[in-house]
Amino acid sequence: MSSSRAEVVICGAGIAGISAAYHLAVKRGVGRVLLVDERPPLSLTSDKSTECYRNWWPGPGDAMVRLMNRSIDLLDDWARESGNRFNLNRRGYLFATAEAERAGQFVAAGEEAASLGAGRLRRHGPSSEEAAYAPAPSSGFEGQPDGSDLITDPDLIRRHFPYLAPDTLAVIHPRRCGWFSAQQLGAFLLERARASGVEVLPGRMTAVRTAGGRVRGVRVDGSGGSHEVETGRLVLAAGPLLQSVAAMLDLELPVTAEWHVKVAMADPLRVVPRDAPLLIWTDPQLLAWTSDERRELAESESTRRLLEPFPAGVHARPEGPDDSPILLILWTYHTETREPVYPGPVDPMYPEVALRGLARMLPGLRAYFGRAPRPVVDGGYYLKTRENRPLIGPLPVQGAFVLGALSGYGLMASAAAGEILAAHVVGDEAPSYARAFRLERYEDPTYQALLEDWGTTGQL
Q1: Is 57 inside any structural domain?
Q2: How far is CA 40 from the centre of its chain?
Q3: What CATH number is associated with residue 329?
Q4: Does residue 236 sit within a domain?
């Protein structure tokens, strides 16, 4: 068995592990940092993302908003540094409703977000005295407002978003949001990390050696055999496989996994404009079927559920450059927990269901019913804590750290999460809000009481 030594070993070369390596080596000057993964970097979950980001998060407390604001600050810096190599935009998220009660909830959400640090709520009603609503540009991120714009003026909604359902009563447009290329961002950070001495070791971490209650080394099995790495600091950043690597330290973490899927399909009719923001329908709905379709679906127990109410939250965005026809569609209506297995489960009806659900918000998509272009379906696992906040910080075994449970927000949070993790590893002070992400929060009676009455988790 060959052997070597590393100052820090990071198990997992997804965007979280790469961010941690970058912050340790480039920003903290840590010596030999070793990234261990049996797969190519960014290929397990990071390349399955919708690649979106937002500072629009609910409470309690402002920890998630502060985490995301810091992440977006870093994304902005890296975009400037790289000549916006990863195509960061600031188109925003557009939440839309046809229900009067929900329009009132938009006001409360905007005011809460403002109080937590996401920026001011601006209202645009029929008699509003606010400055004119300014739509987001299709590219770039500089000079854009933060906060959110609530539009309840029907004429203004039709003028700027004529593709929405005619009965749309209100939209709210959080502005410090958008998307970027995950692969290009990850490649940029990995290049910078490697230039500062980070190495990637292909292989599977199969054992962790401890002695005296602290980490002493790890074993990595690869195509060339087994390799022993001596180290006193180990970071678990294994994405959906976090629980299995934590077991090597005899730890069980408070996380569960959900399987989430997205559809990529061509939109040759340009129902969704190429400069649209991320579009989210906030109303529950029944899917639109013909009488014959309803009869046929009702005959089988496996399809009868398609006649039942579906949850809110179907969302979509255009993908690629201006001449691309691709539309990404997502709808989280399967939320049961499951063990991460690959390949993930396939619901053959998902593309049709997602398209029909999205057509409630974008009626022009009905033209594709029964004749939709062939979709491409992929997915990944959200590894989540109960309240959908990450785990970042030290573990009970000395020298072991966790950077995980990043759920569906791994790409948007990893920039700041890696920074916090690096501070813990080198013993520097982390920002005050980082306490909300440490594992020991679950030992706090006040936090336990908060969990019993936790509201929305911010998941789309």
Answers
A1: no
A2: 20
A3: 3.30.9.10
A4: yes
Which residues lie closer than 8 Å to 444 by C-beta, 6 or more apart? none
Contacts of residue 295, defined as CB under 8 A and 6 or more positions apart, other chains included, come to none
How many whole angstroms separate alpha carbon 437 and alpha carbon 442?
10
- Domain carrying residue 135: 93-177+257-384
| Four-point Cα dihedral 251, 254, 258, 262, nearest 10 | -90
- Give just the sign of the alpha carbon dihedral 334, 338, 339, 345: negative
Query: Is-contact 31 7, C-beta < 8 A?
Result: yes
Q: Is 56 part of a structural domain of the chain?
A: no
Whether residue 395 is found in the same domain as residue 441: yes
Give residue-wise pLDDT tens across range 118-148.
999 999 998 877 778 999 999 999 999 999 9
Predicted confidence at residue 246, as pLDDT, reads 98
Name the average pLDDT for the chain: 96
Give the pLDDT score at 415.
98
324 shares a domain with 211: no
Query: Do strands 234-236 and 256-266 pair parallel, antiparallel, or not at all (unpaired)?
Result: unpaired
Are the C-beta atoms of 315 and 331 separated by less than 8 Å? yes
336, 436: one domain:
no
Angle between helices 63-81 and 410-426 (to 10 degrees): 100
Q: Which residue carries 């970042």 as its tokens?
A: 392
Which parts of the chain have pLDDT scores under 50? none
250 and 202 fall within a common domain: yes
Last residue of a domain, one of 361, 384, 407: 384
Residues 270 and 397 in one domain: no
Residue 67, in any domain of the structure? no
Tell how far CA 339 is from the center of its chain. 19
Domain stops at, among 368, 384, 400: 384
